[in-house]
Amino acid sequence: MNRITLFVLLLATIQVYSSPAALKRSWFDPEPRPNANNDPFKDNKSKDEYHIKDHGDYLKKNKKEDNKDDEFKSDIDDYKASPTAEDDKLTSELDHDRSNKLSDRPTVRTGLKKHNNDKGDKFSSELDRDNAAPTVTTPLKRPTDIIEGDIRLTPEQAAIFNRGGWKELVNSQAWYRNPAHNTKWSRTIVYTINGLAEEEEEALKTSMRQIERFTCLRFLEKYNIHPPYYIEFVDDGGCWSYIGRLPGAYARPQKISLSSGCNLAVPAEMIIHALGRFHEQSRPDRDEYIEILTENIESGFENNFLIQPAAETLSVPYDYLSVTHFGPKTFSKDGNDTIKSKKEGFKVYGQVNRMSYYDIQHINIEYCPERVMRLVNGGAPHEGTVEVFWNGQWGTICDIRFDKLDGDVICRYLGFPGLAVSVHKKAHFGEGTGQIVMNILDCLGNEDSPFSCKNTLGDERFCGNSEAAGVVCQKNIRLVGGEVIPDESAIGRLEVYFNSTWGTVCNDGFSTNAAVIACKQLGYATAMEFHPKFIDNFGYYNSTYPIVMYMVICDGSETMIQHCYSFPAPDDYCDHTKDVAIHCVNFN
């Protein structure tokens, strides 16, 4: 290669990486941008273009060794201020991960095929420079209880499906979340890995690091821990997951399968399903955004495109770039599109390269309320001006039509017991951090989240900062059975309201950081000491409440102990003789 050729290639490379589009493009875009003129799959096959009718056949992407120096940091503490970070910063951090490469994946999530990138496509050139040819591996046999390509049914659900088909299943109690069971995982998700191939295990760990970095969730390998429920990642015939945490023995462990070819962000998608989220194209409002071309669907697979009434939008915009979205040719019988966008300038991708901004937003709304809503300027964590994190910044709620029902839902969503004590208007606690981002919040009072209420989130403002809404909630922490010296100190057994119930905290793993946070949450300056022996020394009575927090780990930046990492106490492992008692004091 002569010098002139090298010089031309160098100039081309500089042009690609210095272009405004390349520098500003963000996986964390605050809005789904029209993408007709900026197509990441231009001249590149979508993940289902090579859909194989036989679920057993699959194509496997050839391996490429990851750049270990570009791995994500596993320490989520670096991202404590993430809601205020700019999109470009998030982009540069995430684009560092070389395992997030463009790839194509068939409909049924059994494997993938690697295609050459169009060198003129800037998005492709940023994410993937591997032009190696695809390889084909031995076919996998798919389980018979898989729907929508990667969602596995429990035996109960499968029996209903085989008896009455899809319609009976989606209308059954076995399919909807049962109020009698808590289908959410704890913030610390315990897991094991059993028999995964090297590439799939690396992709799984990368997905875990991404979720940890941008949400409050943390993954902890099981080892000698004996939690009441955990996830086991296995190679069990394809890429599949259950929806939500299953009740009882189904979650001891609950399996997620990652067979050969289930790499890139496919493990993230499987985890997202296990966290309780359905496919994006099955949400109730999908007909406003996409059209299902039933005439092109393989006979017998039409039921995979039905709307899921149980799927919640949570006020999050429709996401064409979600890793949970079907591709344009999913279950196609003739290679033609089965899904197309109704919105001009938008395209259905079906990408599996990395989670989208709204994939992260969904997790935070469901599991990390403090990352999307908070109370500020109050005298304690249970009161203040209500702020919402939207489009990359914090903003407030207009007080027009803001009432007690709205306050009730907000308090419950933020983890406080009972109903709101009071609601306030006219920026009673102060104007908050940013502009008004929600003009109207109209809750019925029985919603689990204010994002499930009718609202005008993101609409043009017609309300000023001086009209910000505020709320006072009931406290979600208390000391029981001890002594209180007004304005000076308090000592007693620690009880917290956590996961919708009052309970105690196990002393195992409890630290000074946790004690200080609890005391500040109670309105004191700091903690003098903590120990289960306080219970014996002061003759406290045993609690009749369950132990709701175990192995509590705080870094000191949390405003509530409920925001620290913990998981439920293992069965018969912690009893009330190990309940934490703390001594809080004020220094004048």
Query: Which architecture of the domain at 477-585 per CATH?
Result: Roll
Quaternary structure state of the chains depicted = single chain
Shape: globular
- Classify the beta-strand content into a percent band: 15-25%
What radius of gyration results from the CA coordinates? 25 Å
Look up the CATH topology of the domain at 477-585: Mac-2 Binding Protein
CATH class of the domain at 477-585: Alpha Beta
Major sheet summary line: 7 strands, mixed
Helicity, as a percent range? 10-25%
Low-confidence stretches: 3-143
Number of helices: 11
The average pLDDT is: 76
Strand count: 25
The CATH superfamily name of the domain at 477-585 is: SRCR-like domain
Determine the structural class based on helices, strands and strand pairing: alpha+beta
First-last Cα distance: 76 Å
Topology of helices and strands:
Blueprint: H1 3-18, H2 20-24, E1 59-60, H3 87-94, H4 122-127, E2 135-136, E3 146-147, E4 151-152, H5 155-170, E5 188-194, H6 198-214, E6 218-221, E7 231-234, E8 239-240, E9 254-258, H7 266-274, E10 290-292, E11 339-341, H8 357-367, E12 373-377, E13 383-390, E14 393-397, H9 404-413, E15 422-424, E16 436-442, E17 454-457, E18 470-472, E19 477-485, E20 489-498, E21 501-505, H10 512-522, E22 526-530, H11 533-537, E23 547-553, E24 565-567, E25 581-585
Parallel strand pairs: 5-6, 5-7, 7-9, 14-16, 21-23
Antiparallel strand pairs: 1-2, 3-4, 8-9, 10-11, 12-13, 13-14, 13-18, 15-18, 16-17, 19-20, 20-21, 20-25, 22-25, 23-24
